[in-house]
Amino acid sequence: MLNALTGFAVVGLAIIVGFIVGRTGLVGEHGRYVLSRLTFFVLSPFLLFSVLSQADVHMLFSSQLPVAAISAVTVFVLYGLVAGLVLRRTAGAAVIGSLGAGYVNANNIGLPIATYVLGNGAYSAPVILMQLLLFTPVFLVLLDGISTGGMKLGPILGRTARNPMIIGALLGTIVAATGIDLPPIVVEPTQLLADAAIPVLLISFGLSLSGSRVLSTRGTRADVLVASAMKLFLMPAVAWLVGSLVFGMTGAALLAVVVMASLPSAQNVFNYAQRYGVGEVVARDIVFITTVGSVPVLLVVVWLLG
Hints:
Blueprint: H1 5-24, H2 31-53, H3 57-60, H4 64-86, H5 91-102, H6 110-118, H7 125-148, H8 153-161, H9 164-178, H10 184-209, H11 221-246, H12 251-261, H13 267-276, H14 280-305
């Protein structure tokens, strides 16, 4: 179990470094903005291509995929209803809150947790695939339409199709599905840039924490607490119910889907909020609370099901 905390230690150190960099003003007032755009447009696409291109295609399309999809969609819809009908939030705030409640950190926490807890990092690949090729296009279409003030499907789909993260994920999936053997002259430069994505993204998140306190912004606390509770407790519970009762999963398979559902909200949620200028505080606080809170949740899940 102690080895499972290694992934969190790696993530925590990078966030702390980013926080210190922000507090000392080392990268100036525009540092967070520059790192955010660098991650979104350059580094993350290479990371997604690298992870998905090397994944086992049978693992990518395993029964874990529908369980992960059902649990995520359930949380997306429930939070959207609460945000719209109870909290009376704008469309942009509801979209970011929904992402925070159901879009899991399958990359920089999911990969090490799958490796150390489940014994195979490929367990995170189906979730990465689903999120990047299904959920991300849908939510980016919504955010794009909200930010531009229009929902004309043609232009939105065109911009979404040009999104570098989606392009990277799609190309990686094609390589895995076709079994193309990429030469070292392609793999090694790609891997170099992919390796830079996670630390830069986490440092950018740490920068956002400097000079601010979690749950200190009025008008956002309810959003953060509701989304965090859904992420930490409701989503794993739904995954367990669907996996065991609907798909008849037991043992390692059931443990895998519940562990993946117990992961914290992805830093990409904060990255998207920055990119479209909506819900940054909500996204930052949800990611922080769920990252810390997921540690005891994961330990309990492994203790109960492992």
